[in-house]
Amino acid sequence: MSVFVHNHNIQASKPMFVSQFMYIDFIRSLSGCSMPYSQKLNSIWKKRFGEEVDEGLLFVVSVERILQMEDFKEVGKWVSSSDYRSAQPDPLRDFAEKLVNEINVNHVEDVNRFCNVYVDLNFQVSEAKLIWVDRLGFDMRLWSPSKGLFEVRIPFPAEVTDEKGAKSTFNCMSQLAWEVEKNFNAPDFQKVKEVKQIS
């Protein structure tokens, strides 16, 4: 996999969070590339950014593998460039933020109930909030006055493929959590045990 970088726009003074580290096989100036490859990249640049580019400012980076990390304190997972290139984007990406906001505003009791029912906690949670949702589940942030701030990932019972499926699954999980809390139903799932303290 090759990535081309225009070094004129890189501003080292700006802080940035990087969720992926790349192991770079080699870097070479675009001016050293073959003519068809050089023309192709120039064409892509012009189409995408609407301007000509000085080939002396373009570099080709060949990526051998990518280290996917959620947090600098955690162990990441190495992904080959071919697997990374062929990966499919999450089907909920276009409306995940809207869905999270909607759930946090309209389903506060359900979100708080999820902590007690779906997560194995040894402390009392005073505030819970959904922070993200994808096809496999959702991430929550939990606050405990005595213990601090935590994040937890609660998986869906099955993968979802669209917004309707995500809402339906959330509603089913909410109903089950309510039934378990009220002792109308016995839990037939394993509680999440991995809770990450973030402060």
Automatic annotation (TrEMBL):
InterPro entries: DUF2470, Haem_oxidase_HugZ-like_sf, Split_barrel_FMN-bd. GO terms for cellular component: chloroplast. Pfam families: DUF2470 (PF10615). Residues 98-173 form the DUF2470 domain. Transmembrane segments: none annotated. This is FMN-binding split barrel. It comes from Trema orientale. The lineage of its organism: Eukaryota, Viridiplantae, Streptophyta, Embryophyta, Tracheophyta.
